[in-house]
Amino acid sequence: MSKGRSPARLVIALSVAAVLAVFLLYTSFAGGATPSLRPSQLQGHTDTVSLAGKVVGPVTGSARGEGLRFTLRDIDGTATVPVVYRGSVPDLFRVGRHVFMKGKLVDGVFVAEPDSLVTKCPSKYAPKKSDSKAT
Amino acid sequence: MPELGRAALVVALGLVLYAALAGGYAALRGRRRLLDSARNALFAAFAATAAASVVLLVALGTRDFSFVTVARSTSRELPIGYALSAFWATQEGSLLLWLLVLTAMATAALALNRRLTSDVLPWTVPILAGIEIFFALLLVFVSSPFETAPAPADGLGLNPSLQNPYMVAHPPFLYLGYVGLTIPFAFAMAALASRRIDERWIVATRKWTLGAWAFLGFAILVGAKWAYEEVGWGGWYAWDPVENAALMPWLVGTAYLHSVMVQEKKDMLRVWNVVLIALTFSLSLFGTFLTRSGILNSIHSFTESSIGAWFLGFIALVVAASVTLILVRLPLLRARTKLESLVSREAAFLYNNLFLVALALTVLWGVLYPILSAAVRGVALTVGPPWFDFFAIVFGLPLVLFMGLGPLIAWRKASLRSLGRSVAWPSAAALAAGAGLLAAGAGSSPAGLVGYTFAVFVAAAIVLEFARGTRARHALGDGGWAASLAGLVGRNRRRYGGYVIHAAVVVLLVGAIGIGGFSTTREAKLAPGDSVRVEGYTLRLLGSTQERGANASEVRAQLAVSRGGDDIGTISAGKNRYFAEQQTSNEVGIRTDWLRAEDLFVIADQFNSDGSVFVKVIVNPLVNLIWLAGAIFVGGSLVAMWPDAREQRRLERRFAEQKAFARA
Amino acid sequence: MSSAEIAAVVLAAILAAVCVVFVSRPFLREPAPSGDSLDDLTPGERERLRLAEERDRALAALKELEFDHRTGKVSDADYREQVGPLRRQAAEAIRALDIGVERPDGKSRD
After folding, report:
1. Domain around A27
2. One domain, residues A26 and A42
3. Regions in chain B scoring below 50 on pLDDT
């Protein structure tokens, strides 16, 4: 028991430090975190961003044709932006769903990148809202 | 009957309050009858919760729309199976399920460990009661399944995504896992409170921990299968916060399962183990908080309902109480034995813990990042699958390597020479496989290639362990090879069951790499008669059909599949439009080739008025190994958990002889 | 009150009553018990339990070393190096327990 005591502790501490270093290096250099903006924050952005919000109807057009058109609203606000999207429409897409997509604001309309529409796994237990109460 | 349900929950709340107060006093002052009474209160709480559950089930089955819960989650046309499963489809119903499972498990744990809990761990009663109080409070005051309103003509119906057998099964298994982890946590804290840090509580809760962990892992896979078939984007895990909520406690639980073995062998890591189980339990609470509170959508939806605040408060209480208890008992917990050598199984387990906890904390960071950055910088920054995938590879691959190395290293101290001899053959097999795969073109995904190589290493190591053990037993006894193998496993159920579980992880890894690193996608707009080719498959559009199902209108594109010129059947994909729920879902077509374990995956994106269909065709190699891994995982867990009568007798005998000598 | 509501109230009352009786059972069964204290371990018993665990751990470690040696995981040299200290550990643990046994009055060794 005399041999491996201090070196063992040292090696363990170094391993933990190494793991931490990998983590910090990756997050600071590769980043990987994309700003997910709300429609109210979109003003002035001409670069490609990720947009998150709630789908507001009416939903018109076709995603595999001239483009699916709908409005996206701030999750907790009133600001909206019209959206046109082409590509695969995910299974859980519907009016009232929270979605993400990547794209650019062009002439007041958010043009989404193809196939970038993602719906969040719906929180089945979302807080009771007035539109979901039984009538 | 909602009054009965409400009353039953109030009775349950009263019972658990009594159990906590009376049990706490009885544990403090050592009162036997009072403790028995408190324990009976916990048993009765199960009965009361069961009564409330029956009321809700009957209401769901009969579509009693005067219950708000029933009106919100079922409809007249909903098939009875799904109507009953709506029990856990709502906030209040799922809380009731949680309490039901919790009271049931607490009853079982206390009843099966009667002697242990009354003689030695009286604090289990008030601690379990305390946890039950939280859920009972929520059900009585915050989110009741028995709210009534004037009954509408028809209910809103069940979310179509939940109308799937896997989504029906997922929450019960998930809760068996989450709630199951409460038991070892409660016993660990009770042991600390009563200063009983001897091994008995670990042994008593060993099966609970393993069982809960197995249920949790299985639930995650069931959820993944649902996502694969129902959400249908072609993948099986999206690193969505809801998925991560279950993964985090499972990862830390895995670390706990391993490091608790070190405590049994060498009586060290005691502090680390209580920290781990407290972290596991806290993460399971945190996971359910994340999925319920709406906080991931926005801070605002978090504050709309108070349930998030309640959970956050409870989690804070649990963490504070655990930390306090651990710090207070720290002198008692400090181990006397130390790590002897870095080349030992203890060290391998420590590394296993390091990577598992690191991965869990990384996932936690990724889940919390949007909330933290929104709070600090005003803009929510999200991290996506690439970020999580990176860490899954960087932390996961060494973990896989240790999964192979660990069983090959001896406890205490192993010389590099004997380790070298053990790893020689598996390493050779791995390198050969790696070279072969590289030649076959697997180099397109370097991480995948490394993963496959490690997988072969681990598989070979497992085979080696079984072979060596069987041969040693065979040399001793007079049975045949099969008998020796059976005897080997029978006498070391935990170890060899564990090896089977490791094999399941290997199979899962191979499948995950297959679909993650080597899948192919092709999109096409097909008129009837047109074809599209992917990876050797040819799909030709035959036409589209429309039918009226039980509660939905079903549109399908029919495609003929052939490979290498041979007709191998048809596949259909399309959409369902649900009447009551006013929602459309994608119904993907999956054709499984069992021999190659690969899937032909078809999404019919859009049906045009001229009869043409826009399809997306994906070939996912080896994906079915993931589901096969689930079955192997269950099998291995059963072997590991199988009761060992001999060990049980030994433990009872040891406890009895100490007491007998004391009285002599 | 409708009949369904009355039925619900009656059932709830029955449930509550049954629970109260069940919770009071320990006191109803033994209104005047001879002893009401929890059967806890004395410090001597705890110490002996700890020694017993140590003994079992040492014996299990020995058994595992033998098995690992037989299956080839532990080389002959490693086996020779480890078996001595482990045997000593087990012997010491057994001896400590035996000494404890000689004093059944619950006093620990030292």
Report:
1. 1-33
2. no
3. 664
